[in-house]
Design a protein that fits this description.
Elements (H helix, E strand, L loop, with lengths): L1 H27 L4 H21 L3 H16 L3 H33 L5 H14 L2
Helix pairs in contact: 1-2, 1-4, 2-3, 3-4
Length: 129
């Protein structure tokens, strides 16, 4: 699985786990622009690096660009719009990766037939008796 697994994990951390939660927190509180910057600079760099090392240079470059822009922005609304664009782009990549990874795994590992599954279950139940 290698880079696919690492890349899927990195894109999942970068976008749904980090960016989404920062957006949600920013919308539901009166978090200052400085605190938003601190959150982004604290949470994103590691996931960004992993995404880049996994071959997702476009996503990593976009996220780095967002970080650079946010460092110069003062309007919360504009920051939210920019973070939302990164979130939407990253979510589409994440969805595509999860779809692709699933099919890649199924071609790498044969899916057992029903008869084989019943046979495995029978052997498993015998091991507990």
């Amino acid at each position: 699985m290698g880079p696919w697994f690492e890349g899927a994990t990195a894109s999942r951390y970068l976008v749904p786990y980090y960016i989404y939660n920062i957006i949600k927190l920013t919308k539901s509180s009166d978090l200052s622009v400085e605190k938003i910057r601190q959150q982004l600079n604290l949470m994103l760099p590691k996931a960004l690096g992993t995404a880049e090392l996994s071959g997702m240079r476009t996503l990593a470059g976009f996220a780095r660009g967002v970080l650079a822009c946010v460092d110069e922005m003062e309007d919360r609304g504009e920051i939210l719009e920019l973070l939302n664009s990164l979130y939407l782009y990253g979510s589409s990549i994440n969805a595509w990766q999860n779809y692709r990874m699933k099919w890649g795994l199924s071609s790498a590992f044969r899916i057992p037939t029903r008869k084989e599954m019943v046979d495995m279950a029978g052997r498993a139940s015998e091991s507990y008796i």
